[in-house]
């Protein structure tokens, strides 16, 4: 069975241990796309149940407004104000459907990805007078555009509790394959300028569903954070990421180094807990990673998250975001990077973005990065997951 070979039961993606991760495409009752990704060692049958719910029409595409002070685009997505907020456990919208739980996923699954019911961007795409703002160089008053794009939910597991760090290696590998596949598919949609997979974990960072899941935003513009990165590359030179990696690998902020990836606390960390994960070669996004790189990532990334949780007796809230190169520019200079950040500065204390950070964007660090790296190395050494050193 070859890569991307269509079979009667689905599409075979990367092989792991001689067996493929299989992709199965379906449609929800209101027309939204649903994709199942089956583990290599899945116990599920190929067939899936249909979505037989009666659903309201999808909300209209939101509108972006330009902030003339910064040139940034702000999506005003009022439909998101009605999304589910911390529902009771028996009404989990990301668990497989049951008679008492009319959830978003009609059938049992390993990993499931579907279009968000209340998206910040989309469902409209470029065309019919709609356009991305990727080449828009103007700033003005009262400027507005349609919030074209795509927002998707990635369910890591049918289980109702957990996070990416609690997944086994096989399931983590399936999620990584789903991220890579969706990055490739979404990058090819008309008007998409950047694809951003991420996970929010913990109510302290705004999580409204405890089910282990992440999201993927496909923007019709290059994000403000990436625009600042591009400016740094233009000021420093095209070797910025390679030089950062070499600099950190020789320093005291390294946490773990594998064959393909390195994890470290950055020199100028903004957050009390902040970890960056870089591939050892230039690769623009997850779609460009090799099977060997994805295999190692499925071991290394969950271990880093478990080490973060090992710092305290209770789970640590965090945001984990995959910073990928824009779809149409700087792909030979911007390297794929995972950034994990947490506001937790002590067992019972959080860092709040107060005056300087919120008003001026000027961060003040509470914990020396070297201290955080030391604590994470100690926590990593105490893990009893049986995986040993990478």
TrEMBL record:
Superkingdom of origin organism: Bacteria
Q: What is its EC number?
A: 2.7.7.12
Q: Provide a Gene Ontology MF annotation, just one.
A: zinc ion binding
Q: Where is the Galactose-1-phosphate uridyl transferase C-terminal domain?
A: 243-356
User: Which residues does the UniProt record annotate as the domain Galactose-1-phosphate uridyl transferase N-terminal?
Assistant: 106-222
Claim: Transcription regulation is one of the keywords in the record: no
Alphabetically list the UniProt keywords.
Carbohydrate metabolism, Galactose metabolism, Metal-binding, Nucleotidyltransferase, Transferase, Zinc
Give the family per the record.
Answer: Belongs to the galactose-1-phosphate uridylyltransferase type 1 family.
| Protein's recorded name | Galactose-1-phosphate uridylyltransferase
Q: Which organism is it from?
A: Subtercola lobariae
């Amino acid at each position: 069975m070859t890569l991307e070979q269509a079979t009667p039961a689905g599409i075979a993606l990367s092989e792991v241990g001689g067996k493929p991760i299989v992709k199965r495409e379906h449609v929800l009752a209101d027309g939204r796309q649903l994709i199942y990704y089956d583990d290599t060692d899945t116990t599920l049958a190929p067939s899936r149940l249909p979505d037989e719910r009666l659903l309201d029409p999808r909300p209209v595409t939101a509108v972006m407004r330009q902030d003339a002070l910064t040139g940034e685009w702000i999506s005003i997505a009022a439909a998101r104000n009605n999304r589910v907020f911390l529902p009771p456990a028996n009404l989990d919208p990301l668990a497989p459907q049951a008679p008492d739980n009319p959830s978003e996923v009609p059938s049992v699954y390993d990993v499931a990805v579907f279009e968000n019911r209340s998206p910040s961007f989309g469902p409209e795409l470029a065309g019919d007078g709609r356009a991305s703002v990727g080449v828009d160089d103007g700033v003005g008053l009262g400027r507005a555009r349609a919030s074209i794009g795509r927002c998707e939910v990635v369910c890591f597991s049918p289980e109702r509790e957990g996070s990416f760090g609690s997944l086994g290696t096989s399931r983590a590998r399936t999620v990584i394959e789903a991220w890579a596949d969706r990055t490739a598919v979404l990058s090819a949609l008309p008007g998409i300028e950047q694809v951003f997979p991420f996970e929010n974990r913990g109510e302290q960072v705004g999580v409204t569903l405890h089910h282990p899941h992440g999201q993927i935003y496909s923007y019709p513009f290059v994000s403000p954070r990436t625009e600042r990165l591009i400016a740094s590359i233009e000021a420093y030179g095209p070797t910025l990421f390679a030089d950062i990696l070499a600099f950190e690998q020789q320093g005291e902020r390294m946490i773990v180094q594998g064959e393909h990836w390195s994890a470290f606390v950055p020199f100028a960390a903004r957050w009390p807990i902040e970890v960056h994960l870089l591939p050892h070669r230039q690769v623009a996004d997850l779609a460009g990673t090799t099977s060997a790189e994805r295999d190692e990532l499925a071991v290394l990334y969950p271990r880093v998250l478990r080490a973060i949780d090992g710092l305290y007796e209770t789970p640590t809230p965090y945001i984990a975001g995959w910073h990928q190169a824009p779809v149409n520019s700087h792909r030979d200079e911007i390297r794929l990077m995972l950034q994990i950040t947490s506001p937790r500065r002590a067992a019972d204390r959080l860092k709040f973005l107060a005056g300087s950070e919120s008003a001026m964007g000027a961060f003040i660090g509470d914990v020396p990065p070297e201290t955080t790296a030391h604590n994470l190395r100690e926590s990593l050494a105490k893990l009893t997951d049986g995986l040993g050193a990478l």
